[in-house]
Amino acid sequence: MTMVKDVDARGTQHCETSALGVLLRHQGMDLSEPMLFGLGSGLSFVYWDAKNMDFPFLGGRVKPFELTENLAARLGLELVVQETGSPRRAWENVAAVIDAGRPVGLQLDSYHLDYFGTKVRFGGHVVAMYGYDDHDAYLVDTDQQGGAVSTSLTSLAEARAARGPMTARHRSFTLTVPGNPPALQDRIVPAVTACADAFLDPPIANLGHRGIEKTGKLVRTWLQRAGDPRRDLPQAALLMEKAGTGGALFRNLYRDFLAECAELLDSGHLRTGHRLYAEAAALWTEVAALIAKAGESGDAQCLDQAGAVLRDLSRVEREAMRALSRLGE
């Protein structure tokens, strides 16, 4: 058995920030999960529907691995990424890092992992690996998936080799903290304003505040759009609240990030953004409950109510991001 020493195998709410926390704490940089999420400019919104999809998907964050790239750039971390089409080389890449005494991040498809109770294909799942033996790999996943877990080497290989939406070619990565990391206070403003600017000026109507407004119109049709409303609508609500989002489609995490920032920087714009995202988080939880109730009862009025709340949410988040975009002024 080969195990990295002194790993803080603390699982948190979201997979990518859980893995980032493991890698950074091993080098002495211990940041809260909301701070990791916010400094990585992780908040976003997307309404995703396509002909080959059984049901629409609501996403509340930037695309997989973009958060990691943003965080590394913002904190001056050395990010080394390895990808390959060879399963043998992929294993050698990972084993070499662990043999050298460091945990390593992996992007893979969670469907194949032994410990996942609900089998859902998601090629953008991220874990930290800190050990292996002849049969199993030892990983850190989210708290809801068990935190410190293990999966067979066979299942790990299948998860890493999977192809499809959001997958990567056996991606593994390491982070190295610089000798003199920048002060958090100096990194907050660019992280917040970059996130706000992207949210306020999305390239297509399915993203950002425009995407939330569009969802408010389309959600009213979901009973007709669903193949099985009693299954599809509650599952959509569950994904918003429980599937590694930290609740409220990542808005709880961003609210808490802004609260931490307000303790470090004295800014009225920051306090306004925090107040509005606290309001938005509660509204997203209300939307999820209405969507679930609509699926369970077949009552279209619940979706009309959800659409009205989403219209309010588009306005609230737009106002919040407008305030936050002025943080650097």
From TrEMBL:
It comes from the Bacteria. Pfam families: BtrH_N, DUF4872. Coiled coil: none annotated. Residues 155-324 form the DUF4872 domain. Residues 14-142 form the Butirosin biosynthesis protein H N-terminal domain. InterPro entries: BtrH_N, DUF4872. This is BtrH N-terminal domain-containing protein. It comes from Nonomuraea montanisoli.
